[in-house]
Design a protein that fits this description.
CATH class of the largest domain: Alpha Beta
Number of strands: 15
Number of helices: 14
Distance between the termini: 34 Å
Radius of gyration: 21 Å
Strand order of the largest sheet: 4-10-9-8-7-5-6
Structural class: alpha/beta
Largest sheet: 7 strands, mixed
Shape: globular
Order of helices and strands: HEEEHHHEHEHEHHEHEEEHHHEEHEEEH
Helix content: 25-40%
Bound molecules: pyridoxal-5'-phosphate
CATH architecture of the largest domain: 3-Layer(aba) Sandwich
Length: about 450
């Protein structure tokens, strides 16, 4: 078993679930009232506990409750919160300088991150990278670059896709509530086609790809298409792992038709799925890859990496931004990526995934509301259905998330139909803590 003691960050927090008040406690409730009076209502929260410390596999709130973290701030703190190496790197950089704007006067940290990304992303070809702040910004820039390179406009996206909350990426995202409702109009030249969803469509990868491609050819046409972008495992859409061969078939079609194939690995990237990138398990390399979430231990950073000829097609000054590739975030990224490699966290992700899948496979024998157990590595999920059917069971799903939170276990939901509980623990969590968290979910299932 992988030893995670080296990356238990935070101020040496006891690795335990301990409730000293109800959830949320009085201090969190007081802060929540202030939040509601000061923060725009659109900025909602999943679990209103106000964090004061976090590390390893726990989060401590303002009332002194210690909760098990099965969300990692949405797949961000893969190396754990306040991982020691990240804290050191940030401290060292913040004492030197905090900002110059890389496109005014550059610094080596940015270059080093680009070199590292070019090295570790899939594809044995000459690559370039450009750094940004958020996942949505990386996706927007990947589309900008693909359009500039191909001199075409169309962008193909998929059912159940999630790509962000800016205008372009909202338009690329599938789900209306809560992401898009009332926030249009959206950017033109975005075309949505069916995706592979083995639990619901029962199709092989080849069959699902043929359907997607037929629709692209009939309704868009390769000559109008700059890019096709897809998450290798759809995240917000429900942790949907496409049928084997689906992604490669799409990629082959894109290559044959002069369309830039982009993998959005913002959620799947950085050891999460048991390899450094999810694409490492697909047998091909995308033209461009977008990364963010797990890249820098919690500091805001994102990237587009890919084929040099595509990346270099945009003119100088065409890509950038005031804060893109901030030096502190770059220092954090270098320490974070080093930690994934040195601590063999991809391996740890596989151990975590096996543990979660075995746990729910056992429960599924006696509970047919567990429709599907899927995912890869520490990106695992359970899709809940009504007993005896495949009808989505969103009520049970939200009850699990709510009651788990009240019992000191942070779990997140997702899915187009709101019926998926997703598990994204930090890779620094111990087996004991993870199993305790899962048992809380099992007890809630038994009682509901
Ligand atoms: C979270 C996410 C994004 C958006 O990232 P932000 O940093 O929130 O802008 C884009 N794509 C995928 C696949 C994501 O999971």
């Amino acid at each position: 078993m992988t030893d995670v003691t080296n990356i238990k960050g935070g101020p040496s927090l006891p690795q335990e679930r301990k409730l000293v008040t109800s959830i949320p406690g009085p201090k969190s409730q007081e802060l929540l009232a202030r939040k509601n009076a000061a923060v725009a209502a659109g900025v909602g929260v999943a679990l209103p506990i106000f964090t004061v410390a976090a590390g390893g596999g726990v989060m401590v709130d303002a009332d002194g409750n210690s909760l098990i973290d099965l969300g990692s701030g949405i797949a961000v703190t893969g190396v754990g919160n306040s991982a020691p190496a990240v804290v050191e790197a940030v401290k060292a950089q913040v004492e030197k300088f905090t900002h110059t704007c890389f496109t005014v006067t550059p610094y080596d940290g940015y270059v080093e991150v680009a070199e590292k990304l070019n090295e570790i992303t899939p594809g044995d070809f000459d690559k370039r990278s450009a750094l940004f702040n958020t996942g949505a910004e990386a996706v927007e820039n990947a589309i900008k670059i693909a359009r500039h390179y191909t001199k075409k406009n169309g962008v193909v996206v998929f059912d159940h896709a999630y790509h962000g909350r800016t205008n372009l990426t909202m338009g690329m995202t599938a789900k209306n509530m809560p992401y898009k409702d009332g926030f249009g109009p959206f950017a033109p030249e975005i075309y949505r086609v069916p995706a592979s969803y083995p639990f619901r469509d029962g199709l092989t990868g080849a069959e699902a790809a043929a359907l997607s491609i037929l629709q692209i050819e009939k309704q868009v046409g390769a000559d109008n298409l700059a890019a096709m972008i897809i998450e290798p495992i759809q995240g917000e859409g429900g942790f949907i792992v496409p049928a084997e061969g689906y992604l490669k078939a799409l990629s082959d079609w894109a290559t044959a038709n002069g369309v830039v194939f982009i993998l959005d690995e913002v959620q799947t990237g950085f050891a999460r799925t048991g390899t450094m990138f999810a694409a490492d398990q697909e047998g091909f390399a995308p033209d461009l890859i977008t990364t963010a979430k797990g890249i820098a231990g919690g500091l805001p950073l994102s990237a587009v990496t890919g084929r040099a000829e595509i990346m270099d097609s945009a003119h100088a000054g065409g890509l950038g931004g005031t804060y893109t590739g901030n030096p502190i975030a770059c220092a954090a990224a270098l320490a974070t990526i080093d930690t994934y490699e040195k601590e063999n966290l991809a391996e740890r992700a596989n151990e975590i995934g096996a543990l979660i899948e075995n746990f729910f496979a056992e429960l599924q024998k006696n509970d047919d509301r567990i429709g599907d157990i899927r995912g890869r590595g520490a990106m695992s999920a359970v899709e809940f259905v009504m007993s005896g059917s495949k009808e989505p069971n969103a009520a049970l799903t939200s009850a699990i998330a709510k009651q788990a939170g009240e019992q000191g276990v942070l779990v997140l939901t997702c899915g187009t139909f709101g019926n998926v509980v997703r598990f994204l623990p930090p890779l620094s969590i111990s087996d004991e803590l993870l199993l305790e968290g899962l048992q809380v979910v099992a007890d809630i299932l038994a009682a509901n």
